[in-house]
Specification:
single chain; about 400 residues; alpha/beta; Aspartate Aminotransferase, domain 2; Aspartate Aminotransferase, domain 1; 2 domains; 12 strands; globular; binds pyridoxal-5'-phosphate
Length: about 400
């Protein structure tokens, strides 16, 4: 019998404070105060202020990309991207993603054409993309680089080129990753990063569209600001996608600590890898196609039969310990408004997405947890498996 007593069975929770799954970088208060003082002294809140310009410059140099266009958040960045690319009709995209991926298409008047993903990597499956490209209404591929890993980029690029449609990336999870030494941000017609508080690079809320295409960049800059910052070019619509100086200040501080953030993540991930090794029915998803990962998320698959508890039962065990493990992504986008009504048949075409949505579980990484915490969470998961019958009984069918 395991020495770990579980909170779900009446013991004291392992953690006093709740542990969320996001990265949650916070700068030192003194550094934040100094950055805010600068904004007050300059009396400049927003619209391509000096900090936003500095951030764009630093990002361009760091990523080796011609244009880094900072925006309010990645959702707006994706929406602007669809407009700047001049898309129409349908766009091939995974339903196994955060809903913002597809919503950006819907807001741009486009139709997501959902494609299934690879069961091992969770990334878009190029074989299925190829079949969907036979639809003449398809005007682009919007692939998602998930979990600090990337898609089968060479295959996707070859397919997009052959069919003559743009390939662009939702890289919300992939800032700081590289493929054969080349920074993510340089692939596809453009890539969109999220600098949300849960991401490895944080502006609290924020994002960035990267491209090596000068004309596309000019259009994106014009769409970003209805006040017309930058060299004017014709665009059919404009918006407010501006990043504020307060956001840029946090992003610059987050960039200064980025090497430490990755080092910390690497240690936590390694601790989970050790602690969860050999557990029947639990598979830790390891980034495969990148030469450098950011360990944005720790994602496990729980096979209920082999593990002895379902993903939802294990989540209930962890939540009782104040570990806010998340079912991300759940449900699949095709089961969310408005897509459930628009495409009721989609679930049949997406068996891998359906299966993953029932078994993925995210564990905490980033600032909220440390190596000892990750080991402890591993012990709790092990104990939950050993005490599966009691856990099931105590849950009484609730999870
Ligand atoms: C895959 C993916 N795309 C897009 C987004 C949206 O990013 P933002 O919150 O910056 O709009 C997220 C956010 O979590 C995401 O996970």
């Amino acid at each position: 019998m395991s020495a770990v007593e579980l909170a779900i069975l009446g013991a004291t929770p392992a953690f006093e404070q709740p542990l969320p799954v996001g990265q949650l970088y916070f700068p030192e208060w003194s550094a934040y105060e100094q950055a805010m003082r600068g904004i007050f002294e300059r009396q400049y809140y927003t619209n391509q202020g000096p900090l936003t310009q500095q951030l764009e410059q630093v990002l361009q140099e760091r990523l080796g990309v011609r244009h880094a266009i900072c925006v309010t958040n990645a959702t707006i960045g994706l929406l602007m991207a669809a407009d700047a690319l001049g898309l129409r009709g349908k766009v091939i995209t995974p339903a196994f993603s955060f809903i913002a991926t597809s919503q950006s298409l819907t807001w741009a008047g486009l139709e997501p054409l959902f494609c299934d993903v690879d069961p091992l990597t969770h990334q878009l499956d190029p074989v299925l993309v190829e079949a969907l490209l036979e639809d003449n209404d398809v005007s682009a591929i919007l692939a998602v680089n998930l979990w600090g890993d990337v898609c089968a980029q060479d295959q996707l690029r070859e397919l997009a080129d052959r069919r003559g449609v743009p390939l662009y990336y939702d890289s919300a999870h992939a800032f700081g990753c590289a493929v054969q030494g080349r920074a993510v941000g340089n692939f596809g017609a453009l890539e969109v990063f999220s600098f949300h508080a849960t991401k490895v690079l944080s502006a609290a809320e924020g994002g960035c569209v990267c491209t090596n295409d000068d004309e596309l960049a000019a259009r994106l800059r014009n769409i970003r600001s209805s006040y017309g910052a930058g060299h004017p070019v014709h665009v059919s619509r404009t918006a407010n996608g501006r990043m504020s100086e307060a956001q840029a200040a946090i992003a610059l501080l987050s960039l200064n600590s980025f090497a430490q953030t990755l080092e910390r993540n690497r240690g936590i991930f390694a601790a989970y890898r050790d602690a969860l090794a050999g557990l029947p029915g639990l598979r830790l998803i390891e980034p495969q196609a990148v030469s450098t990962t950011n360990y944005q998320y720790v994602v496990c698959e729980i096979d209920a039969e082999r593990f002895g508890l379902s993903r939802d039962e294990l989540q209930a065990v962890l939540r009782a310990e104040n570990v806010l493990a998340r079912r991300y992504f759940y449900p699949g986008i095709h089961r969310c408004t408005p897509y459930d009504e628009l495409y009721p048949e989609a679930a049949e075409r997406l068996p891998v997405t359906e299966a993953l949505c029932a078994k993925v579980l995210q564990l905490p990484i980033g600032q909220p947890v440390d190596v000892a915490g990750a080991r402890r969470i591993g012990q709790i998961i092990r104990a939950a498996q050993e005490q599966a019958a009691s856990v099931r009984h105590s849950l009484g069918g609730r999870a």
